[in-house]
Amino acid sequence: MQKSYLLLILILTTISCNQDQSILLNPESVNHYKDKIEYDYSIEKKVSYDDNVRLIELEFYKEEKLIEEMWGEFHAQYFYNTEGQLIKINHCRFHNCNAGIWEFIKYDENKNPIGSLRTLDSLADIDTANVLQNRFYDSQNRLIKELIRNSNIL
Known about the structure:
Elements: H1 2-16, H2 27-34, E1 41-49, E2 52-62, E3 65-71, E4 74-80, E5 86-93, E6 96-107, E7 113-119, E8 135-137, E9 143-146
Antiparallel strand pairs: 1-2, 2-3, 3-4, 4-5, 5-6, 6-7, 8-9
């Protein structure tokens, strides 16, 4: 029963997706998206096989910082504070970044990134949130230890 329910949800989700909003990385959709974003320059990563060149990744930069990137269904938006530190990332699919997963980055008093919080809430307060510290620094601000795998599954 549970498998049938999950299959039904998958089918309904697939049917309800609007093809016009998908960022299939072809020249028409790329040009359409480039008109909607403010950027200084972009980088297109392409692959060539059997005399066929295909765009596989697209990155947008503003003031020398990555602000958006896309590949396949994946789309990410990057946000920085006034000091130029990356403070949050919106991981989403296609053009619809209203329903993404937000990742907030927490820094220590020396401006070293120490951890992050992933949430569906775009207005989370990283200062009051319980963030798992996964990067540790010595007194000279050198990274000495990093937790690279984290899981809630026992």
